[in-house]
Specification:
27% helix; 9-stranded mixed beta sheet; 6-stranded mixed beta sheet; globular; alpha+beta; Jelly Rolls
Length: 464
């Protein structure tokens, strides 16, 4: 047996220290924790039994991986897919969408929900160039790498389409420029939402310079995604790489509507223990409470989804996933005209290898927005609403580049409240300290309040 030292934590092997020749360190640690968690072997004192079993299992597991006909680096979704997310072939009512799907916190594929958008019928290369070619879009490289940092920038839409057609692996992930909203509509089932965190403002119209109506769901932003693969003849020369995201979750609800192309979606329930244990880069995922994940912000897993190293990350074998839908031959796709609802905090990964132009738009709103029957009684839910009539929180003119990752309204509100509370707390401390100095000046040295203020002036301007 290889030499190793094992320490105990609450009677369970928790740490492995290498000795001469010890191999498969991460696997040994992983399986030792698994044995403890499964209560297969539970000992107090030296963890010899667990150590021996973990080393043997790790060695056998590693040997099995080496003997696999396929490489140990596998594409995400080639194992662990247990089924499909819910799919509906009809357009739901607003009440159905909000009370059945949003409140249930479940991903949903809505077939044909965006098929009637003018953009779904009209947006091709020529149309985008002629109508909106001067609008600036935020761009990234085709394969998202949040750990290394994707190369980001901005360029006119015309330039993006030209570079993509020439074979560059660049795509747009940006806010929708306001002129482009003329070809977009809001699905009627997305109306009728109100912010339940501020009940006094439910269904209340805004009084800003661009007034909105009370029945319009408060949306954070309109997202735009454009990828432009080479034409068929150019593709034969360039062999472009499929575009894919990392595994990640967002802190807002998202309705993603595909206008052109095809996408493959994988969903990982962040309430799942194995998903919680994935190597989240920011460490924002903190557990589960009340049947929902608890986190401090959006997060991602810094693993290449096209080549997951299952020897380095054996715990990923236990992760289960669901696809957008199970198609013929095992392919799961979102087709042009389909929308997918992604609940806040629900982990997912998206790939697109469709030929030529792919375009999608997204509608983002916060978790505190809920169905409001009073607003719905006045909302025009019988037909899609032209998007220029709506005012998102982060509005974009199309000039310059708007970076993603702005704070949500609830985050901004919470930070302001925290700042006010902190300021008030400091003021109370300041008043208490000043009173103490005045009291000592008056009763110990016979001074007065003015003397105390002068004596404390240097201290008062010192920040806490």
């Amino acid at each position: 047996m290889h030499a190793a030292a094992y320490s105990l934590s609450a009677g369970c092997a928790a740490e492995v220290t290498t000795g001469p020749g010890l191999e498969h360190l991460e696997l040994v640690l992983y399986f030792s924790k698994r044995l403890c968690a499964w209560d297969i072997m539970y000992v107090r004192g030296p963890a010899a039994s667990i150590a021996a079993a973990a080393v043997v299992i790790a060695a056998a597991y590693s040997a099995l991986l080496r003997r696999r006909p396929a490489p140990s680096r596998l594409a995400l979704g080639s194992w662990g897919v247990v089924g499909s997310i819910a799919t509906i072939e009809h357009t739901p009512t607003a009440r159905e969408f909000w009370t059945v799907d949003v409140d249930a916190w479940r991903p949903l594929l809505l077939r044909g929900a965006a098929a009637d958008m003018p953009a779904a019928r009209e947006w091709d290369r020529d149309t985008l160039v002629s109508r909106y070619g001067n609008s600036t879009v935020r761009t990234e490289r085709a394969k998202e790498d949040r750990v290394a940092g994707s190369q980001r920038g901005g360029m006119p839409l015309t330039e993006l389409l030209r570079r993509g057609a020439a074979g560059e692996d660049v795509y747009a992930i940006s806010n929708v420029a306001h002129p482009m909203t003329e070809d977009l509509t809001l699905p009627p089932f997305l109306l009728c939402g109100s912010d339940r965190s501020t009940p006094e403002r439910l269904a209340a119209p805004s009084d800003g310079p661009r007034q909105t109506v009370g029945w319009a769901t408060p949306l954070d932003e309109f997202g735009l995604w454009i990828a432009n693969l080479p034409t068929a003849s150019q593709a034969r020369r360039h062999s472009p790489e499929p575009r894919r995201t990392t595994v990640h979750y967002d802190q807002t609800n998202i309705l993603n509507c595909l206008l052109r192309g095809e996408k493959r979606w994988l969903f990982l329930d962040t309430r799942q223990r194995e998903v919680q244990q994935m190597p989240w880069a920011m460490g924002n995922l903190r557990g589960v409470d009340g049947g929902r994940p608890v986190f401090d912000g959006s997060d991602f897993v810094g693993i290449d989804p096209a080549a997951v190293d299952l020897e380095a990350h054996p715990q990923l074998w236990s992760v289960t996933m669901r696809e957008a839908t199970q198609g013929a031959g095992g392919g799961a796709t979102q087709r042009a005209g389909d929308c997918i609802f992604v609940p806040w905090g629900y982990a997912h990964q998206v790939s697109s290898a469709s030929s030529e132009l792919s375009v999608a738009v997204s509608f983002l709103w916060e978790r505190d927005v809920a169905y409001d029957p009073a607003a719905c009684a006045r909302a025009p839910t019988a037909m899609p609403l032209p998007l220029p009539l709506l005012l998102p929180l982060w509005w974009y003119s199309g000039a310059g580049v708007v970076p993603l990752g702005y704070n949500t309204l609830s985050q901004t509100r919470q930070r302001l409240l925290s700042a006010v509370e902190q300021t008030a707390r400091r003021r109370r401390l300041l008043d208490a300290a000043l009173f103490a100095r005045w009291w000592r000046a008056k009763h110990e040295r016979g001074g007065d309040l003015l003397t105390a203020r002068r004596g404390a002036s240097s201290w008062i301007v010192t920040p806490f």
